[in-house]
Amino acid sequence: MPPNLPAVVPPQYVQGTLDGLPPGTPGADGWPDEATSLRQTTFVVLDLETTGGAPDGGGITEIGAVKVRGGEELGILATLVNPGEPIPPFITVLTGITQAMLLPAPPVEEVLPSLLEFLRGAVLVAHNAPYDVGFLKAACARHGYTWPNPRVLDTAALARRVLTRDEVPNRKLGTLAAYFRTPHQPTHRALADAHATVDVLHGLIARLGGHRVETLGEAIEFARAVTPTQRRKRHLAEGLPKVPGVYIFRAADDRPLYVGTSGDIATRVRSYFTAAEKRARISEMLAAAERVEAVECAHPLEAEVRELRLIAAHAPPYNRRSKFPERVVWLKLTSEPYPRLSLVRSLGPDDAAYLGPFSSRRSAELAAAGVHDAVPLRQCTPRLSVRTTSPACALAELGRCPAPCEHRISVEDYTARAVEPVRSALADDPQVVVDALLARIGVLADARRYEEAAVVRSRLAAVLRATVRMQRLVGLTRIGELAAARRAADGGWEIAVIRHGRLAGAGTAAPGVPPRGVLDLVRATAETVLPGHGPVPNASAEESERILSWLERPDTRLVETSTGWASPARGAGRFRDLLVRAEAASSRQLPTERT
C-alpha cells in the first residue's frame, strides 16, 4: 500500500447474483461444502500486519483481504487499523507503517463487522494461518463478536506437502512467490502480501492435481501432517459407497488386516488417511494394506453385527477388541450332591445354573469370591461322596465352610443354605447375596477395616454386574422371534428380525414404502435359528448386547414377538443404582486383592 493511500479504503467488493454462481457452489449464507471442487470454492485470502505482540485482542495495524473464485478476483478489503498502542520501531522499519499513519485509522472493533461480512460463505486462506486467525479470534472475543469459524487453508502448510526441499529451500511467502514467478511480490504490507498469497495459492492448487486433490476437503486434509504412507495409500479410499456397512482392509494375499464399521463407509475410510489418525498400529496396518473391501448393510445395527462376526471369524491382527469370543469363561454350579462353583470355558447341554459370560478369569474369580462371602458354598474342588468322609480344610476351622466333606451338614441342609440361594441369585433374585455382602461391608467399615471393605465392595460389584448382564441376555435369547423397526434419518424404517438373541434378518423400508411388506420379506428370508442351551445359545454375548442396545432405544418400536419379553420382577436389574455407586467408588479407589 503506498504511503499516500488514505487511512481507510472502503471495501471494493463485487458479488455475483445467485443465478450467476457456478453449479454446486453453496449459497452466500452457507460455508462451502468439503465436496466442493477447488475451482468452484470461494476463497478470502487474508494478511495482517501487527505490532508483533501476542494475540490479545489488539495489535493489528493493517488488514488486507482479496476474495477470489476460479482464478477471478471478486473483491478487495483493505484498511489500516489503529492498534491503540505504540508501534515498535523495528515494525516501522519492516513495514513502513508509522504512528502518524495509524492515528486517523479506525480501531479494530469498527473494522471487524465489515471483515466478518467479507468472510461470509468463503474459505479463509492465509500464509501461516494460525498467526492471522489467532489475532482475529482474539479481537472478536475481546470486542463481543462471534467468530464464524470458517474453514481455513494454510498456504505454508500446503507448500510443505506439495513442494520438496530440492524445489524451495524454505516455505516463506517471498520464497514461494519467487518460485512461482508471481506477478505480485510480498512487501510486508497487508494488501500486497494478500495478493502475493493469492498467486501462491493458485500455483499450489495447480500442483495438487498431481496428488489427486480436487475438492476443498481433500485440500484441507492434504495440508495437514499426514504420513507418507497415508498419502501414498489414500487411493484405497476411492470408490467406496457412502452407506452403512463394514469395511475390510486386506493385505496383498487377501488376508483381512482390520475390520471396522460405520454409518458412512466412504467417509470413515477416508479418515484413516488424515492427520487425525495417529495410532501406530493403524499406520503399520496401512503400510501392509493393498485394498479395502466394503460390505454394504441395510442399517447400522446390521453393520455392527457383521463386524463382530467377521472379527470373530478371521481374528484380524490389527483389531484389538471382539477377536476371540470363544475365550469367555463362565461360573457353573456343578451337578453333584454337594455342588460348588466351577470355572468353565463352555456351556453343557444340562440344566445347571451358570453365571457369565466373563471376559477374563480374574473377573470370574472376583464374582466367585463374592458368592463365597455371601453363602456357605464349599470352595474345594474334589467331588465329595455322600458315603465316605474326607479331611476338612482350614476354611472349615475358620467357620467359612459347613464342612460337607466331613458330613457335618446333610445334603438337604446344604442345598437349602448354600445351593438354592445361589440358584435364585443367578436366575431370579440376588437379594440374599446382596444383603450378605452389604452386611459384611458394614461390619468391616464399622471396624475401620476400610481396605477389606473395599475388596468386598469390588466383589459385590462383580456379582451384580454379571447377574444384571446375564438376566438381560436371557430375557432376549429366550424369545423365538422378535421383529422391531426404527425410524431412519431419511424418514424410512430400519427393520430387524431377531431370533433367540441373534440377528437373523435386516432390511430398510425407503420413505413412502409401507414397512409391513418389507418386514414380511425380511422374515421370509431371515436365517433359521434353532433353540439352544445357556444364556447366549446362538450368538456371542456382545452381538446380543448390541441388539439389546438397539431395541432399548426410545425410538425403536417392537412390532411382533413370539413370546413375552420380560425380566424377573425381583431380578438383578433393580440393583442397578447400587451397582453404579459401587463401580463409581471402586474407580476412585481401586483395591488391591491378594489371592
Automatic annotation (TrEMBL):
<dbReference type="InterPro" id="IPR006054">
    <property type="entry name" value="DnaQ"/>
</dbReference>
<dbReference type="InterPro" id="IPR000305">
    <property type="entry name" value="GIY-YIG_endonuc"/>
</dbReference>
<dbReference type="InterPro" id="IPR050066">
    <property type="entry name" value="UvrABC_protein_C"/>
</dbReference>
<dbReference type="InterPro" id="IPR012337">
    <property type="entry name" value="RNaseH-like_sf"/>
</dbReference>
<dbReference type="Pfam" id="PF01541">
    <property type="entry name" value="GIY-YIG"/>
</dbReference>
<feature type="domain" description="GIY-YIG">
    <location>
        <begin position="242"/>
        <end position="320"/>
    </location>
</feature>
<protein>
    <submittedName>
        <fullName>DNA polymerase III subunit epsilon</fullName>
    </submittedName>
</protein>
<dbReference type="InterPro" id="IPR047296">
    <property type="entry name" value="GIY-YIG_UvrC_Cho"/>
</dbReference>
<dbReference type="InterPro" id="IPR035901">
    <property type="entry name" value="GIY-YIG_endonuc_sf"/>
</dbReference>
<dbReference type="InterPro" id="IPR036397">
    <property type="entry name" value="RNaseH_sf"/>
</dbReference>
<dbReference type="Pfam" id="PF00929">
    <property type="entry name" value="RNase_T"/>
</dbReference>
<dbReference type="InterPro" id="IPR013520">
    <property type="entry name" value="Ribonucl_H"/>
</dbReference>
